[in-house]
Structure formats: structure tokens, C-alpha cells
Amino acid sequence: MRKLISALPVLLLILASCVSYQALYREAETPLDEKMISYLIYWEKPDNIKEITLMPRDRRTVAYKNAIERVASQLGLKVDQFKSRQELRIREANLKFGSIQRGMFTDKGKIWIKYGEPERIEENVSSDYGTAEVWTYVNPSRTFYFVERGSGAFLVNPGEDNL
Length: 163
Description:
This protein has six helices and four strands; from the N terminus they run H-H-H-H-H-H-E-E-E-E. The longest helix is centred in the first third of the chain and has 25 residues. The N terminus is likely disordered. Helix content is 55%, strand content 17%. It has one domain. By secondary structure, the protein is α+β, with helices and mostly antiparallel strands. Helix 1 runs parallel beside helix 3 and helix 4 crosses helix 5.
């Protein structure tokens, strides 16, 4: 119980970042803004995306393009490959994890978008966080614990991603 209580600040941080990404997406000025935000979501910090959305339209288009190119390059992908992968993962996350809110804004959706389908999923695992669903990735090596709370599963160990 004590460990669960100590995880509460992390949960609140995650929820706050979720609201930030949702707000950005909802406040998109044009369909193009919404599309560009969907490419950058979970790869750029919400503040960086917000900064782009506040630019005049002509500068905004260039800033989106540069940010997307930077992310694709960091991932070792061509821009078109990155965009296609991002669109597919968002579509999958919305279908798999959506209910009251779009799946892309759930904790499972965020991890799915960023890392894809896990190599292994274990259910009903006893952990420091309570009974959890555990997603394991091999490359890069990552393990995520999701604990069911109320209307959804919450990530309890965001690690260095700070999603």
C-alpha cells in the first residue's frame, strides 16, 4: 500500500501530461494542425508543440516539418515511414484502448504509439504496484506496468519517458 501511495505523484504527473496532449489536440486551429500534432504526440513535449501552434501559419508549417524530420531522424526512419507508422499506431491505439476517451490518450495507447505492440503481455502479475498487466519490449529493453483503476489502466512506472 505504501508503494502505491508513493506512486501517486507519478500518476498525477502522467494524468497532467495526458490532459496537456489532449488539450493541444482539441485546440488545433486547423485539420492540418491536428494532423501535425498527431505526428508529434508523445515524441515532443507538449510545451514544444504548443510553441509551434502559436506561430503564424507560414512559420508553423515549417516548424512542424522540421520537428517531424528531427523525430524521424532520431528513430532512424524516413519521414514518410515515420508518418505512416505513427498513423497506423494511433489508429490501432484508438481501436484497442478507446472507450470514454480516444485510445491514443490512454496510458496503454501512449506506450503503444511510442513502442508498438509489446513482445510479451502478462496479465494478473503481482507487483509492487498491485495486480498489474505487464508489457515487455526487447528493443529497446523496456517493461511497463499497468494497474487497473476505475475506468482504465494506469501506467505506474513511466521511467525515463515521462509520458
